[in-house]
Amino acid sequence: MSQVEKLLKYQEADSRLLKVEQKLNTSEERKKYVQARSYLTKASEKLDQIEAKAQELKSGIDRLNQRYNDLAETLKDFDHLDELVEEGNAISFYKRSAQSLAEDLKSLKSEINSLTASIKEQVDEYQALKKSVIAAQKEYPALQAAYKKCKENVQTEAEAIKKELASLAKDIDEDVLKKYQAKRSERVFPIICQLHGDVCPMCGTSLSIAEKENASSGKVIECENCHRFLYK
Fold it and tell me: Which domains does the chain have, with CATH numbers?
């Protein structure tokens, strides 16, 4: 058996291994498992964001409480307004103070309404996320087990092909096999291709005169561009 025939036989077995690997990567079991794992990871990050937002809202509540206490203290000045006016204090001063106080109260009410809406939004988001996470956590073990079983089945099939490849590799030149495996690691396939002219059938690069002569004499050549093995 020629070196080309050995390489082609090796590549045929390798193509079956590639299909097995792709079968796992594109399986519904893996897809659902990866989606669930990704969702739970992102949900954890989202919960951290909600917690940070809750701390921010708490700071807002503390700030409004302090403003309310300050306004309450100011209101105490109006408890004995009649007495203060009778003592000769200017009513215009208290009028301006009352107007300023009314504006502060209006502003405070607006902030309270805004903060209340934000708190409700955060509570609703948290409750919805909590419900979704609980459902995902219940489903996750079954998805993980299904993916594990699929992976084990694929690995069993892959191991059988790898043993076949190891046996075939014994009859292939070591340097040629290293180059083959280097291209395989780059997810390039097929690696050995038949020439039907003077250009690489995969990347379209023209062969040099020396390469044409070597290919015509039955030698395996290497494309200068994509580095695939080429033969006639």
Answer: 26-169 (1.10.287)
How many H-runs (helices) and E-runs (strands) does the chain carry? 6, 3
Quick one: tokens of 214?
């070597």
SS3 content of the chain, % helix, strand, coil (to 5): 75, 5, 20
The helix (H) or strand (E) run that includes residue 179 is helix 174-185
Q: Give the model confidence (pLDDT) of 174-204 as tens digits.
A: 888 998 999 888 888 899 999 988 999 999 9
**What SS3 class is residue 154?**
helix
pLDDT of 86 strictly over 70: no
- Residue 123, beta-bridge partner list: none
* Residue written as token pair 């075939």: 168
Whole-angstrom distance, CA of residue 145 vs CA of residue 200:
45
In angstroms, the CA 230 to CA 188 distance is 14
Distance CA 50, CA 105 (A): 29
Which residues does 196 contact at the CB level (< 8 Å), separation at least 6?
Answer: none
Token pair, residue 194, equals 């038949």
* pTM listed for this prediction: 0.57
pLDDT band at 82; cut points 50, 70, 90: low
d(CA 185, CA 91): 89
DSSP string, 3-18: HHHHHHHHHHHHHHHH
Task: Read off the pLDDT of residues 62-75 as tens digits, 9 standing for 90 and up.
Answer: 787 787 777 767 76
41 — pLDDT class (breaks 50, 70, 90): confident
